[in-house]
Amino acid sequence: MKHGHDMIPARDNRMVRLLLARWLHGAVRFARDQRGVAAIEFALVAPVVVFALVAMADIGLAVRDRMALDHIVRTGAQAATMNPGTQAVLDVLDAASHGSLTRAGSAAALSVSVVQECACPDAPEVTVACATNCSGQKPTYIFYTLRADTVATGLILPNMAVASRARVQVR
To answer: In which element (H, E) is residue 111 found?
Structure first.
C-alpha cells in the first residue's frame, strides 16, 4: 500500500512547491509593502483628533458663556453701587443679558437674581432689616448679591452649568 505523498507524481510535486514558493514570496512582499500605511494610520487617528477638536470647541463655548455671565454680573454690580434698589439692579441685569449670550440654548436657560441684605458694622455676618439702627447709631451695611446662571449645551460633551456671582457692599 502506498502512502499519500507517494501517490502524487514527481512532476505535480514540483508544481506544488513552485506554487507554494510563489505564494510565500507574494506574502513576504505584501508584508514589506509600505503603500497605504499612511491611510490606515489616518483612519485610526482622525476620529480621535476630530473628537478632541469638537470637545475643545464645547469647552471654549462654555468659557465664552462664563465670560458673558461675568460681564452681566459686573454691569449689575456697577449699577448696585448707587443703591437704586433690588428691582432697578435686576432691570440692569436683564438689559445687560440681551445679546450677551448668542447661543440659543444658553440664552433660553439664563436666570439672573438680585438679593439685598443689610448688616450692622459690629456683626457683618448677621443679616438685619435695612431700617435697623445699629449700636452707636451707625448705619447698616448694605450688600447686593448678584447671580447669573445658564446651561452651556455641548455638541458632544454633556450640558454644563455655568454661573457667575458677585457681592457688592454699598455702604
So the answer is: strand 111-120
